[in-house]
Amino acid sequence: MEFSVFAGSSNPSLAKSIAERLAIPLGLRALTRFPDTELRVELKTTVRGRDVYLIQPTGPPVDEHLMDLLLMADACRRAGAAKITAVIPYFGYARQERRVSGRESVGARLVADLIAASGIERVVAVDLHTAALEAVFSIPLEHLSAVPLLAEALRPHLSPKAVVVAPDLGAVKLARRYARILDLPMAIVHKTRISAEQVEAGGVVGDVQGRSPVIVDDMISTGGTIEAAHQALVAAGCAGDALVASTHGLFTGPALERLTALGIRALFTTDSLAMRATPLAIHPVGIAPMLAEAIKRLHEGRSLSDLLARE
Ligand code: R5P
């Protein structure tokens, strides 16, 4: 069976790099809008009987990118694709995986259902907000990790007395993976979220006095989590010249101003979301080689185990 790769609208440059690694041209498709703003997808190359991979991180604007993915999948299914895999390096709605206050939606579950209903039979994601998200999918989920790539990018920049820091309890398993790869001690900041843009950091657990922090997270959105963790670490006697690593750089709202004001030494993030020019020097870590390798192995029915996020 032949395979095809299509780019959604959210990160065409990542899709292009993946296709180049796979030495195949990207499938052609058109995305248009009706005057009432509805999106419409039309495939311009055949997918009949093919193993199809759709590359579409569902970052901001999340709903538009999600709808584009669903429409692409629907078009592929109706055009006779044999199997459809969605490669969603950043999975929007991941943080809505449970109800917190009561009368709320559980967005992650609904989105997973929509994905399955569109004809997608398998999802490839990278460093999900929580590994437990696998349970919201009724279809197989391949959960890859960019932590080994980010850790190797960090390595030459580490200070002799570095400590890996989880900026909240949710990041503990992620931080443990970095600490293990880099053979560093680990600390945890206790975070309380006040609102979507504001968090408060409490105590720091672990020996951070006189050490240089390497703050790691799955995503940076408004930068509130990193800002609060950095302030708590400095108050606990850490050096201020932190390194920050995050798989997904959303950089919404005040994120870039906040991160710039902290005076951190360097920020590392992957190209899971389209990279844009920022006043902050960002060390980009490319994930196209990993995603291309995953697609190749999935197509050939080979194991992905060394690429998967393991806790
Ligand atoms: C939440 O627990 C996530 O792992 C991130 O820490 C959080 O979403 C980052 O958001 P922000 O940058 O807005 O604090």
Strands of the largest sheet, in order across it? 10-9-8-11-12-13-14
N→C terminal distance = 34 Å
Indicate the CATH class of the largest domain: Alpha Beta
Any idea of the CATH topology of the largest domain?
Answer: Rossmann fold
Instruction: Report the strand count.
Output: 14
Radius of gyration: 20 Å
N-to-C SSE string, H for helix and E for strand: EHEEEHEHEEHEHEEEHEHEEH
| CATH architecture classification name of the largest domain | 3-Layer(aba) Sandwich
Determine the structural class based on helices, strands and strand pairing: alpha/beta
**Which stretches are poorly predicted, pLDDT < 50 over at least 5 residues?**
none
Query: What is the helix fraction of residues, given as a range?
Result: 25-40%
Number of helices: 8
Mean pLDDT across all amino acids: 96
Number of domains: 2
Largest sheet, in brief, is: 7 strands, mixed
Hetero compounds: ribose-5-phosphate
Broad shape: globular
Structural description of this entry:
This protein is an alpha/beta fold and 311 residues long. The chain has two domains: 3-146 and 288-307, Rossmann fold (3-Layer(aba) Sandwich); 147-285, Rossmann fold (3-Layer(aba) Sandwich). It is 29% helix and 26% strand. It has eight helices and 14 strands. The strands form three sheets. It has a seven-stranded mixed beta sheet, sandwiched between helices. It has a five-stranded parallel beta sheet with strand order 1-4-5-6-7, sandwiched between helices. The protein has a two-stranded antiparallel ribbon with strand order 2-3. β8 (162-166), α5 (172-182) and β9 form a beta-alpha-beta unit. α1 (12-22) crosses α8. The longest helix is centred in the N-terminal third of the chain and has 17 residues, at 62-78. The chain is globular and about 60 Å long. The protein starts with a strand and ends in an 11-residue tail after the last helix. The structure holds ribose-5-phosphate. The site of ribose-5-phosphate has 15 residues, from β11 and α6.
